[in-house]
Amino acid sequence: MCSSQCLIDRRKQGLRRPTKYRASLQLVAQEYAIISVATSAADLPLSQACAMIMTMKYATVIFDFYGTVATRDGKGLNLDALLRERGHRLDASLAREYWQEGFDGTTHDEASQSRDHYTKWQRSRLLSLLDRSAVPTSTAAELAELLADPSTRGSMVPYPESHEVLAQLRGAGIQTAICSNWDWDLTEAIEASMLQDHFDFVVSSAWVGARKPHARIFEHTINALGANPETTLFVGDTWNCDVEGPSNHGLTPVYVRRPGREVDHTHPLHTTTDAVVGDVHVFEDLRPIVELCTFPTKLGSNSNP
């Protein structure tokens, strides 16, 4: 069994599944952005395996987690509701400052030394937010203790199409990953959503000490995957983190805005009614990703994708 220090080391590096491809096929795929149609090709003679290879527009797809492939089941405690029950109010702009606009893109190396460091840092940030919201110290301490219990947060559940889309991508030989602004327990959240078998690599901002759209988390993910940014798609639901950040690092972004989701205040127009914003595809769910990634053209074919 892995020791606690081993687990910390693994999480800070990101979690990676063993590849099923031969080194020779991987080299071909990375050089020409073509991937085996099925993992079974790795068990065939190279000549037969190459016959199964298809031209791919993208060899790697990196996903955000929350709001993109999974969401909460709605059964967890809500800070705003808990405050209202106690006669207090959480200012929406202040909350965004603490959890989004004033938080995303920052680094927190000291907090990312271990899970214990990170949870203490989370608690201190929550207490600071509640103090600025004029919540009494005793009430703030009560709420911080209550929300620290993982069982009060509800469970993560996949979106209806997530399993099918992810399985199709991996079946086409496309490398997949999660890159998320999350806490230390991203692995457990993915397992709760039953999506853990669909990803080659997982990284949380908590483990690398930097939140999207900071350069470090993108560089860490790309390097760990051995991916070429030019053939990598990044799929997410927050404009500054999942569109602007990836674009700045040579990745192709896709913006997913599901019906009924809260307004994305980082979007320049606060709207997503168009199918394409600039040169960025906007989808209501993940289903168009497979078609966007693949060209059904066999290697050596004279047909054009």
CATH topology of the largest domain: Rossmann fold
Helicity range: 25-40%
Order of helical and strand elements: HEHEHEEEHHHHEHEHEHHEHEEEHE
Distance between the termini: 48 Å
CATH superfamily of the largest domain: HAD superfamily/HAD-like
- Major sheet summary line: 8 strands, mixed
Number of helices: 13
Q: Strand percentage, roughly?
A: 15-25%
Summarize the structure in short.
Helix content is 39%, strand content 16%. The chain has 305 residues and is α/β, with parallel strands linked by helices.
Describe it.
By secondary structure, this protein is α/β, with parallel strands linked by helices. The chain contains 13 helices and 13 strands. The protein has an eight-stranded mixed β-sheet with strand order 1-8-7-4-9-10-12-11, with helices on both faces. The chain has a three-stranded antiparallel β-sheet with strand order 2-3-13. The protein has a two-stranded antiparallel ribbon with strand order 5-6. The radius of gyration is 21 Å and the shape is globular. Residues 1-8, 18-41 and 297-305 have low confidence and may be disordered.
Structure characteristics:
305 residues; alpha/beta; 3-stranded antiparallel sheet; 39% helix; 16% strand; globular; disordered N terminus
Question: How would the blueprint of this fold be written?
Answer:
Layout: H1 4-13, E1 15-16, H2 23-32, E2 34-35, H3 46-51, E3 54-56, E4 60-63, E5 70-72, H4 79-85, H5 92-99, H6 115-132, H7 137-148, E6 156-158, H8 162-171, E7 175-180, H9 186-192, E8 201-204, H10 205-208, H11 215-225, E9 232-236, H12 239-248, E10 252-256, E11 276-277, E12 280-283, H13 288-293, E13 294-298
Helix pairs in contact: 6-7
